[in-house]
Design brief:
Layout (H helix, E strand, L loop, with lengths): L4 H17 L8 H13 L3 E4 L6 E4 L41 H13 L1
Antiparallel strand pairs: 1-2
């Protein structure tokens, strides 16, 4: 995991670009789920997968009793062909992150890391 601010910013950028290059349609996000679970595991965060849908849940338990806060990030992409020419362009024909879910997942993972 990143050890300084420069590494952290690079890690966030590379993670978001990886999600962007490898979009998956709703309920097909197995690669994305695996990547998220791997990162949460490295952070020591308890994870739970679901039997009937893609995605995962991370549980961070506080040191005192109190209210529970739930944060969520969508991870699905859209059935849209990407026309941008970038080094992180979607590698899946006809599927792209056109509405920011690649950023949502990255922000959520980066929030805890920092």
């Amino acid at each position: 995991m990143p050890v300084n601010d420069t590494d952290f910013h690079h890690w966030l950028s590379e993670l978001r670009r990886d999600f962007h290059k490898n979009p998956e349609l709703s309920l097909q996000e197995t690669r994305t789920t695996d990547r998220i679970v791997n990162i949460l595991d490295k952070l020591g965060i308890e994870t739970q997968r679901f039997d009937d849908i893609t995605g995962a849940m991370g549980l961070i338990t506080g040191s005192s009793k109190g209210k529970t806060i739930a944060l969520r990030a969508d991870i699905d992409a859209l059935p849209v062909t990407e026309l941008n020419e970038t080094d992180y362009k979607s590698e899946i024909d006809g599927v792209m992150h056109a509405c920011g879910h690649d950023a949502h997942a990255t922000i959520m993972l980066g929030w805890h890391e920092k």
